[in-house]
């Protein structure tokens, strides 16, 4: 696998799992290249791609840092231009109806001063990689939001394929490292919140109980994350030494699975692994769940700000 793909996967996965939190300083291009023993151009290319995706940002004279998933200045500028166009349309319509600009200004000022004190339940959409696992993520998030709030799911692939985004929606939630990509797939005006993830309690417990002498086979789906699957397993099963990794598309996957005692597979790979794994072997999913700290610190404040600004009497356009 190209070194650039591995490096980008390491950084993206670190952001997705919260190991590289927003604001953390990253090594310079030269420092990282020397440390990893790869070409400076490779590191520079990866950093450029991550900046374009909104995952990292360069601060002149200060270095490179993990970003919040999008270019906030660009987003704010786009929002202002959008509002300016609507204001222009509003005054043009008022002129056609014979209303003076001063009347429209008075109405706008009155609306701004009135504020919104009423609220209604918030509607969320979770965008993930696979429907089943995304629904599991949504179920976890549901435990932290209001009893009247709702959350439905879709996938990145479905949106890329042209499937309609679930509406109505107040907030879109996705994986931290895919936030920039998802922002281009949701309707304009819907805020996108990226969450970090941690291994589930069940996964941590199962890994800790693996026989130290067992031969472990790890099956990854995404090439860019393959490099991190092994250290992710060994973090919770440090007592195991015989560990190897394969991509789910590897031509020797069946032979590989025939030689292991325990198959640990990424979410979404279960059907393939169960089909090829000998019946007397153990299989377990390396399952992630939304980090509850990220939900509390990142998502809930956005929900509460939005909740206080939504008027329950406002209806969605038909």
Automatic annotation (TrEMBL):
PROSITE patterns, per the entry: HTH_GNTR
Domain HTH gntR-type: 1-69
GO molecular function: DNA binding; DNA-binding transcription factor activity
InterPro entries per record: Tscrpt_reg_HTH_GntR, WH-like_DNA-bd_sf, WH_DNA-bd_sf
Keywords noted in UniProt: DNA-binding, Transcription, Transcription regulation
UniProt name for this protein: GntR family transcriptional regulator
Organism this protein belongs to: Microvirga aerilata
